[in-house]
Amino acid sequence: SPVAETFRVIQGAMSEEHVRATQGVFQFELSGDDGGTWYIDLKTKGGSAGVGKPPVTADVVMSMSSADFVKMFT
Question: Angle, to 10 degrees, between the axis of helix 2-13 and the axis of helix 66-73?
């Protein structure tokens, strides 16, 4: 799916430097195709991204369509 692929690319691009510089956890509530809860954790060591709630409380929660999410990151 486009959403899962986008998160796969984000996960692959993460570095300890991104985590150090950002120090934020972002939760996405997506509607439409591949909707649901997804996250990008740029606070916990190593960082992570994927489906479901983040491993720690999100600093920012954004609600949008899955199509807009993919456009935002591609």
Answer: 40
Q: Where are the beta strands (DSSP E) in the chain?
A: 24-31, 36-42, 48-51, 60-65
The answer to whether 54 and 22 are in contact (CB under 8 A) is no
Full-model pTM: 0.92
First to last CA, the chain: 14
The kind and range of the H/E element at 9 are helix 2-13
What tokens appear for 24 in the block? 């934020």
pLDDT score, position 74 = 85
Edge-to-edge strand list for the sheet holding 36-42: 48-51, 36-42, 24-31, 60-65
